[in-house]
Amino acid sequence: MDTTVVNTDAENKVWGGGNEPLRASYGKLMMWFFIVSDALTFSGFLAAYGFSRFKFIDSWPIADEVFTHVPFLHGQEHPMIYVAFMTFVLIMSSVTMVLAVDAGHHMNKAKVTFYMFLTIIGGAIFVGSQAWEWATFIKGDYGAIQTKGGNILQFVNTEGERVALGDFVMTGAHDRVHHERKNGIWFTDEGTLPTYTLQEVVASFESNPDLLIRTQILTKEGEKTILSRDESLKQLKTNGKSVVEGANLHVNEYGASLFADFFFFITGFHGFHVLSGVIINIIIFFNVILGTYERRGSYEMVEKVGLYWHFVDLVWVFVFTFFYLV
Amino acid sequence: MAHAHNLSIFRGTIKFKSNTQKIWGVLILLTIITAVEVVLGIYKPQSLMGQVLGMKALNWIFIILTVVKAYYITWDFMHMRDETASLRRMVVWTAVFLIAYLVFILLQEGGYIESVYTSGFVKKDF
């Protein structure tokens, strides 16, 4: 292609490429289009969450009671604190990103490098926190009983404080052995069995008169309904089906299993965006160090990846509101 | 790319001297809003638990604060303030219209199904 003239007067021809409608470059426009479509995807998920929540408005889990943990502070309840910290980390990394873009406008390679580095660190802290949050959620803390109708019964003492299964259940002889592939049919196995069996929980509950059952149903004041002792025993004996510890895609000790499904799906999809954002940031970071954009004469690539990074922050602002606050 | 930055927020009430200063200013604003949200979320003042337009007043406050945050992230971090008006409308109006439409329909339907559940699977008893 050496024979073709590289520098035609393409800028003057409307259809010849090289002109910039809306005074934004091709790459930036395409990033904006991608952001609009991705925003619609996320709003689809969040609107579906809203749908399910409105559908079960009087029995939805209370987020303040679910996300109460902070790393290194065992056994203490600090609702919202850790997720507020995560939000702040993400906003902060958005700020360092926009500072990197600004330094790029001034063609300051050293500053772009420094701010890109800080942005990557912020993203990594966020993804790590997200992973910790998932691990805590999956592990669960109090344990509960699932009823035949798929509802959750939790245990409280007479003051209404939550009681963990481990605090009152006395283990008897396990009548149920964990089925493994090596015993029995080789191609079948089963997931982890809960620590306690239903019979043990029911027996311990009966011998402990201070315990009551808390259902999923919300009272007018927005708190969970606590049953009387007789009601509790009746519910447990007639409707109890299995012991639930923690949460996965099938069961959820905090309440409606849909809540866990949406939590995994929405924060997972967002976390995946953050992860890919960090990877793209790392690629751009190395390009900056190698001087690619210095030679190109413009740091526009930093601006484009910056748009994506801010978008991820923007989505988190909404996830934070609709999952943790509202 | 090299076009000048619009350095004032709040419709010109606060003006910044440089783009870097504006970024820090917006960070302070976003931090204050997040702090207010967290404090309200932890303490849940009783005075804000009344129902307004089918939702708790507190929830409306959260949603409005979130939209304010989204505005500043888009306008100042993503430099929407500096883009041409047509690009801005193309992106913002499209998204706002489609999202509002989807959210309205799904929430309406969710509320309807809830009412069918609570009133014994019969919506209207003629």
Describe the SSE topology.
The complex is a heterodimer of chains A (326) and B (126).
Chain A: H1 26-55, H2 63-66, H3 81-105, H4 109-139, E1 144-147, E2 152-157, H5 165-168, H6 198-206, E3 211-218, E4 224-226, H7 229-239, E5 240-244, H8 257-290, H9 292-296, H10 300-325
Chain B: E1 8-9, E2 14-15, H1 19-43, E3 51-52, E4 55-56, H2 57-77, H3 85-118
Antiparallel strand pairs in B: 1-2, 3-4
Helix pairs in contact in B: 1-2
How do you describe this structure in short?
The complex is a heterodimer of chains A (326) and B (126). Chain A is of the alpha+beta class and 326 residues long.
Q: Measured on Cα atoms, how large is the radius of gyration of chain A?
A: 27 Å
Distance between the termini of chain A: 60 Å
Q: Give the ordered list of helices and strands of chain B.
A: EEHEEHH
Briefly note the structural class of the backbone of chain B.
Answer: mainly alpha
Q: What overall geometry of chain B do the principal axes of the alpha carbons give?
A: flat
SS field, number of helical segments of chain B:
3
Helix percentage of chain A: 40-55%
Shape descriptor of chain A = elongated
Helix content of chain B: 55-70%
How many β-strands of chain B, per DSSP? Answer: 4
Q: Reading side by side through the largest sheet of chain B, how are the strands ordered?
A: 1-2
- Order of H and E elements of chain A: HHHHEEHHEEHEHHH
Mean pLDDT of chain B, as a whole number? 87
Computed over alpha carbons, the radius of gyration of chain B is 20 Å
- Find the biggest chain interface: A-B, 57 and 51 residues
